Amino acid sequence: MPRGPREGVRPAFRQWRAGRPFWGGLLLALGGAEVLLTLKASLDVILHVGMQGLAGYLLPVVMLLCGVLILFNPTQRLFYSVIGVLVSLGTWMTSNLGGFFVGLLLGVTGSCLAFGWLPDQEPRVSRRRRRKQARAAENPPPTPARQS
Length: 148
Hints:
Elements: H1 9-18, H2 22-39, H3 53-72, H4 77-94, H5 96-100, H6 102-116, H7 127-138
Helix pairs in contact: 2-3, 2-6, 3-4, 4-6
């Protein structure tokens, strides 16, 4: 009995996610968004806008853009991740200490994950499936006795 139209959405998303450095791009984009949000904080919270006001807004936008490009164009992930880590480190000087360290750390971590992602790697087998396969190998199913 079919469960409905959503039955194929989750496997399709998993397959899409497996073909790209999903977590790296997502963390880099979230880091850029967090730095942008700390720039809009109230004046009581802001430490400094930066050496130049434009750079304070430009670097987090580049971080966000690199994260999105890593998600939707994974073939160029090496270039985007190198630009992403450099820009993330640049927000230390220009954007409230890199969004109070949170955006800086998210950006650097996401860039490193995207840089280290290998596209031709076999999908990881879940623990549940590995346990199930190990149990099946230990206890083979009984074979029915032949009657003559």
